[in-house]
Amino acid sequence: MAFIRLQYEPIDVLACYQKMKAPAFGGIVTFCGTVREWTGELQTTFIEYTAYEEMAVKELRKLAAPIEAAGGKVVIVHRLGPLEIEDEAVFIGVATAHRQEAFEGCRQIIDQLKEAVPIWKKEINTTGERWGGELAHD
């Protein structure tokens, strides 16, 4: 079963990685999203994540389900609350028998997470605050 967690504590990247290791898996792909200082011309001070937690976990399980049904392993950990520059905001790991499926699964999860999961980002920057944090060219 996928390991899915929303948490206020820092993400232990090594512990997340260790959850994916198994003799059946030859490919392990991870993605760590960190808080960056600059988004275009805007300098970030910090970011705050909030979520509809019960629904977010349900949606994250849906994203992991096809990979796990095909024999893979998925680990998704997302931070909530205030985060500083360079903090890990999200860890996504996919382990499969071969690297191609692991790369595809990891990319698919992060892309779908940003679209479908009720986790919201409030970015506080030197000019104020905004929700979402992305610019058109990102």
TrEMBL record:
- Top-level taxonomic group: Bacteria
The record's listing under Pfam families reads: MoaE (PF02391)
Coiled-coil ranges per UniProt: none
In terms of InterPro entries, this protein maps to:
MoaE_sf (IPR036563), Mopterin_biosynth_MoaE (IPR003448)
| Stored PANTHER family | MOLYBDOPTERIN SYNTHASE RELATED
Stated name of the protein? Molybdopterin synthase catalytic subunit
**What is the originating organism of this protein?**
Enterococcus diestrammenae
Q: What is the lineage of its organism?
A: Bacteria, Bacillati, Bacillota, Bacilli, Lactobacillales
